[in-house]
Every structure is written in C-alpha cells, then in structure tokens.
Amino acid sequence: MSGAPSRVFIARLAGLAVFDPTGDQVGKVRDVVVTLRIGRQPPRVLGLVVEVFGRRRVFLPIGRVTALDAGKVITTGLVNMRRFEQRATETLVLGELLDRSVTLVEDGTTVTVEDVAMEETRLREWLVAKVFVSRPAKGLRRRGETLLVDWDAVTGFSLAEEGQGAANLLATFEKLRPADLAQVMHDLSPKRRLEVAAALADEQLADVLEEMTEDDQVEILGKLEEERAADVLEAMDPDDAADLLSELQPHEAEKLLELMEPEDSAPLRRLLAFGDDTAGGMMTTEPVILAPDATVAEALARVRNPELSTALASMVYVVRPPLETPTGKYLGIAHIQRLLREPPSTLVAGIVDNGIEPVRPETPLAAVTRHLATYNLVAVPVVDEADHLVGVVSVDDVLDHLLPDDWRQQAADEPAGAQRGA
C-alpha cells in the first residue's frame, strides 16, 4: 500500500475522511473489520466500515485502500454502496475489541484494551499485531500503567465477556452528533449497544435516544434500571419522551411516570392524553415563553440557547403569567427577524404578531401540516379552549409523524447491489 505507515492505531482511524482517487470525499471511517484466527495468530484485517452520505455504512476492502496517512484514507476506484452487514466470522475492532478485559500471558494480570494496532506484512496483508492495554492502578497511583504488547502476549479475546466497558469506544466517537452516535449504536451488537448506553451520561443518552428507531429506544429503555430510565426520560424533550412512553405497555409507562419528578411527569401525562396524530400529541411543551414586559434583549438571550432546535429558536411566544405551559392567556408571537431589528430595550409587547392563528390540541396532523404550509411557518402555537398556550408544534415534529416509523433505518438501507467479497 503506497503511502501507508507500517503501523496504524485503529482508534485513530475513527472519523477519518475517505477520498476517492479524484480527491472527492466519499465518507468517513467508522470501524475496522477483522477476522479472529485459531490460536495466537494475529487477526487478519478485512477492510473498513465507511459511513457514506446518508448515514449508510458500506464495506471497503483493505486491498482497495491505497493510502493511510496525513489524517485521511484514499481508496482506489468506486466504493460499493451496498449496506455493510457483519458476518458471523467477522469482528469489529472499535465496536467489540476496545474496552475488553484480557489477560497478559506473562503474569496472568487482567488488563483493559485501549487500542490495537495493525501492521502491513511483506505480502501486503494487514494484521492486528499489537495491543495497547492498561493495568489497573495500584496503591496511591490514580492511573494504571499502559503497555504496548504483541497480540500473542494476551489471551481472552475469544471469550464472552459480560459488563464490558465502553469508555475507549466512546472516546473514539466523542465528537459525533447524537444522530450519528445513534447510528453507531444501532450497528453494534445488542450486548455492546446496552454497554454503551450504560456508559453514557443521562443527558447524552437522552439526546441519542431521541434520534433512534422506536425498536432501539424500547430495547435500551427496557434494559435500564427503572430509576435510571426515569432520569433519562426527564432529560429528554417532553414530546420525544411521551412518544417513547406510548410505545411501552401502559403499566410500564405508569411505573416510570411515578418515578419521575412531578414537574417532569405532568407535561408527559398531558401529552399522552392526546392522539399521536394530533397537534397535542406532536407538540413540545417547552418553547421559548416570555411575558409582555420582557425586553428584546431578554428574548434574544433566550433564543441563543444552543439546545433549542432551529424551529423553536425562530420565535418567542408571548403570554400572560404563568409562563409555564399551560400558561396564562396567549397574546401572540415575536419573530426573531423582528427582534433583531429592534433596540434591545424594546418590550416584546410592542412587536407581537397576533395575526397567526394558533391550533387546538385536537387538530389532526393533516390540518396542522396545511397550516404550516399556508403561512410558511416552521412552528405553530397550540392553545386550549381558554386561550392558554399548551405547547408548540414545529415542522420537525410534523416530519417525524409524516415519515414512516422506521425512516431512520430506511435512510441507511442499501440499494440493490452485488454481495461484497471476503
């Protein structure tokens, strides 16, 4: 392989851009596929798992890689766009080998795998030749000793392991957005998927669950301890949490609601009372809400919140107190374009647009969709019969309900194509 270094640490490949011979980027490296061999023979590298545009994961044979240097991967020829399907004889290095507990042959010490390195032989074959491991800390040392050893200096890779950690796996993907990490987890084995979920902080797991298929959501939530499952639901956006709860058995959903803080469970109960395909069932209960005596400066400070979606940050909703849904009387909307044109000391009451009709919680999906399209809106307020603001339906909420339930997975499905070689 021209331009390839003699040794490549595989964790460092994660996220590297993959280019074709003309210099166009075709995707990013997400994992390396190897096959474990009998005895202490080092595994043979079969190829790379590459995420191409559209989040489809495809297989790139290692023989098609012409360079692994300068922070990029260069391939020869076209990439087969058939979706990667892992075979029973194959192992994913990042997904399955990192964080493994293995044993040093020399003294029987249990160590943790932090990385592995592959090397090219004289026959132009790539093998996993080295293992970077860490010993547990001893005494007053906060960090254990790290070692780079030959593959045959450790044993235990072929043994099943329960409770495998995920710290090093997550470190390789620390810059991924929640939607991309959700796809990484979907492609892991069920065992590793749950181990990664266990390693994520509640807020991280909440963000990732919001981007997962319903099947993956239910699987992961069902395997968490009930107290933690309730904490994760509290960290999710209320509309997404309600959608997830609606997929559970009623008694399971009720048990989790009882474990949640009342201020977090109350909006979920309200959302669950509405049909899925109504404004009430789709809405979020946490838009940007201000009193009429708030200033433009306050409004702009609120919409700068990086956790807000683009749709929710596009306008603020002006109501009389109380300012939490269900609010006092709904007065209207202040659009961000108007906010940007006004002096910071201006009161939002003076720039309220009350010409946009809100919808009722029972408004069906089709009517909400027409309302958004008619008025070129990215979000629409939802009010009850007493004109209290109860939530907001954004265009992304509508899309989630218009698309098939498994649209996230369909986006990664392969087109018809030939089977990949070994």
UniProtKB/TrEMBL annotation:
Superkingdom per UniProt: Bacteria
Domain CBS intervals: 283-350, 352-414
Annotated Pfam families: CBS, MgtE_N, PRC, SH3_actinomycetes
Any one GO CC term of the record: membrane
Q: Recall the GO molecular function terms of this protein's record.
A: magnesium ion transmembrane transporter activity
UniProt xrefs under InterPro entries:
CBS_dom, CBS_dom_sf, Mg_transptr_MgtE_intracell_dom, MgtE_N_sf, MgtE_transporter, PRC-brl_dom, PRC_barrel-like_sf, SH3_actinomycetes
Membrane-spanning parts: none
Q: Which UniProt keywords apply?
A: CBS domain
Protein name, per record: CBS domain-containing protein
Species annotation = Vallicoccus soli
Lineage of the native species?
Answer: Bacteria, Bacillati, Actinomycetota, Actinomycetes, Motilibacterales
